[in-house]
Automatic annotation (TrEMBL):
It comes from the Eukaryota. InterPro entries: Cys-rich_flank_reg_C (IPR000483), Ig-like_dom (IPR007110), Ig-like_dom_sf (IPR036179), Ig-like_fold (IPR013783), Leu-rich_rpt (IPR001611), Leu-rich_rpt_typical-subtyp (IPR003591), LRR_dom_sf (IPR032675). The lineage of its organism: Eukaryota, Metazoa, Ecdysozoa, Arthropoda, Chelicerata. Transmembrane segments: none annotated. This is Leucine rich repeat containing protein 14. Pfam families: LRR_1, LRR_8.
Length: 243
């Protein structure tokens, strides 16, 4: 359904489509509400929507959209209500909603989302006055999702139905707000460590181990059964002992 504000009257048109051409909404700059729900769209018609800078409400619910790409809604600076529910969305770019500073309602429930990579950046493009619907997804509650969870709680974002974790198994069926942030964890990952060192006997050797993870991993250096050091770097004063 399309709503057009023209001479303070509203017109209605019905739109049923599997594709929206770039020229679909040319000369409809006064369009304020657009309903493209329950069609067979597979992508966001970003080029068409760019012709509607005054749009305030947009529904793309019930389509076959799987991926929300970077800057998909950038020209829609007046948009305050966006419904992307009941699609098959599995991926959101971290800047998918850049420019939507007027957005007051975002509905992304009933999709196939597991995580939002780059969540630190993702929340920077959302208003703190936002109401958010994101239940009925397959959320993997780990360190990648933690920043979004923190942002929601710290800013008292309005959520009618609390999202729950689908993974990992130990957190399954628990609501985000009931889980301490430390449980939104990722296994440690060793980024770099040399396994061979060539030095003159008697010289000092500095060995570095770069590890990432959340919560921050603790590093323990051992030689045979003896604990040597607790840091990401160790200096061996007498290389001969380790040769």
């Amino acid at each position: 359904m399309v709503w057009v504000d023209q001479n303070q009257k509203k017109k209605r048109k019905y739109v049923v489509s599997v594709d929206v051409s770039a020229e679909s909404f040319v000369k409809l700059s006064n369009l304020i509400e657009l309903d493209l729900s329950n069609n067979s769209l597979t992508t966001i018609p970003s080029q068409s929507l760019a012709e509607c800078p005054g749009l305030r409400r947009l529904s793309l619910a019930g389509n076959r959209i799987s991926d929300i790409k970077s800057r998909s809604f950038l020209p829609l600076i007046k948009l305050n209500w966006l419904d992307l529910s009941r699609n098959v969305i599995y991926h959101l770019d971290s800047d998918a909603f850049i420019g939507l500073r007027s957005l007051q309602m975002l509905k992304i429930q009933s999709n196939r989302l597991q995580t939002i990579m780059g969540a630190h950046s993702f929340v920077n493009y959302l208003s703190k006055r936002l109401s958010l619907e994101m239940h009925d997804n397959q959320w993997h509650c780990d360190c990648h999702l933690g920043p979004l969870r923190d942002w929601i709680l710290e800013n008292s974002i309005s959520i009618a139905i609390k999202p729950i974790c689908s993974m990992p198994e130990r957190l399954k069926d628990q609501t985000w707000d009931s889980i301490p942030i430390e449980q939104f964890s990722c296994p440690p990952s060793i980024k770099s460590v040399n396994t061979h060192f060539y030095k003159h006997i008697g010289n000092n050797v500095t060995i570095t181990c770069s590890v990432s993870g959340f919560p921050s991993p603790k590093i323990l250096w051992l030689f045979e059964t003896a604990e040597l050091h607790r840091s990401n770097k160790i200096v061996v004063d007498n290389f001969e002992e380790f040769h």
